[in-house]
Amino acid sequence: MQRGIPSDLEECIEFHRAALLLRPPGHSDRPQSLDNLATSLGERFAQRGLPSDLDECIELHRDALLLHPPGHSDRSQSLDNLATGLAERFNQRGLPSDLDECIELYRAALLLRPSGHSDRSQSLSNLAISLGDRFWWRGTPSDLDECIELHRVALLLRPTGHSDRSRSLENLAVSLQRRFTERGVSSDLDEAFSLFLQLPHISHAVSRMDLAAAHSWAITAEEMNHSSALAAYQTALKFLDQHVTLLSPSSRHFDVVRMATASLAVDSDAFSCSVRHGELTVAVELVEQGRAVFWTQLARFRTPLDELSMARNTGAALAEEFKQLSFRLRDAFDEPVEDQSPEIRQLTMQWDDVVSRIRMLPDFSRFLLPPLFSDLKKAAEEGPVVIVNASQYSCDALIVFNHQDPVHVPIDITQTEVSDLSSEFQSLTREFGSSDTQLKLVVKCSPWLAHLVVSHC
């Protein structure tokens, strides 16, 4: 299912159903067939959201568990499978009985995964997350306390370099922030952000979960008005740029486009945060970094990797080496194994080495690095450049000059109003398509933009 073709999944489910019919009660491979069919139905539920698929998935996992009695080597995995299905159904329907049963099953699985077991950190994390969900549902303080302690133990089992470390950092940080909100103990908040601040220092190539953790950090920092918000956005955009680059030389263009589109929201909030912190040149750098991710992927503009491939023999060889390492890293991240850290660590060292060699080439010193303001302001050589940004936190304009610092102009308009104006503009341009008419529409839809340019230039 690497390409996500629905017909492949449909055929897979039918084959698993046929196999199950050939493995009646008493057949030694019946538990495996039950789990295979359940897993495929779970994947189809994730794609289509049909409740009947999830219900059948759960019942099949329940049947499989009955065939994995106490003492069976696969019992812990079977407990985990059923618990995961129940957790998903609770998220969909909010039935407390599903969550209670899920927690008991995760507890049972954890008991079968003692210290030294390869899946222990995942069991700790699963149980902690479900307890956190039950705290939100019922508000029992002991559930949140136990959730935090389990996340602490899981983090200890995921040291620097572990492929799941960023997820553990995020889980523990968010849980501590939640407890701070409930009880007001400042040490919880301090610890939460000390955990988030470890994210920029991950020592492996960026994965999807690293990107999610950085985004969570930015949201939490904004919510708590914390001083690390700008660092969070810088980390999120850095991770986004690297991860999209990792995915881009592949057939998974849908994933790349989805992430590139998401970059616009992160980028607009990052711009707003930079402005609110008085870091105007950083705002320009970040907005350009986010725009580059979007346009090079969605519009298929030429990327730095494309340019490298055209840069003589050395550049082409390095580009090919970079692509091959990216493929291997992506495959390692996709492996359904508890910890791919050793392989990922080795591949990351090779990936870092080839990136360093690329940056030694002329014109590639900023490969996979954000642009510098000193380079960006050259666009204003023939006149000021106005950057308008609409974020959920603020709406602002920056006027970029070639020989002086940018000028910030707050705009008294909400993001919703900007969205409405954008929709109106698009509607009118479809009706009146000429460039002259479009220019008139810009003035009509945004008189404040014309005013700010005239008054500050």
Topology:
Blueprint: H1 6-21, H2 30-48, H3 51-66, H4 75-93, H5 96-111, H6 120-138, H7 141-156, H8 165-183, H9 186-196, H10 208-224, H11 229-247, H12 253-276, H13 280-298, H14 304-309, H15 312-334, H16 341-359, H17 373-376, E1 385-390, E2 395-400, E3 407-410, H18 415-431, H19 435-445, H20 447-456
Antiparallel strand pairs: 1-2, 2-3
Helix pairs in contact: 1-2, 2-3, 3-4, 4-5, 5-6, 6-7, 7-8, 8-9, 8-10, 10-11, 11-12, 11-13, 12-13, 15-16, 18-19
Architecture overview:
70% of the residues lie in helices and 4% in strands. The chain contains 20 helices and three strands. The chain has helices at residues 6-21, 30-48, 51-66, 75-93, 96-111, 120-138, 141-156, 165-183, 186-196, 208-224, 229-247, 253-276, 280-298, 304-309, 312-334, 341-359, 373-376, 415-431, 435-445, 447-456, and strands at residues 385-390, 395-400, 407-410. It has a three-stranded antiparallel beta sheet, with helices on both faces. Strand 2 and strand 3 (407-410) form a beta hairpin. Helix 15 packs antiparallel against helix 16 (341-359).
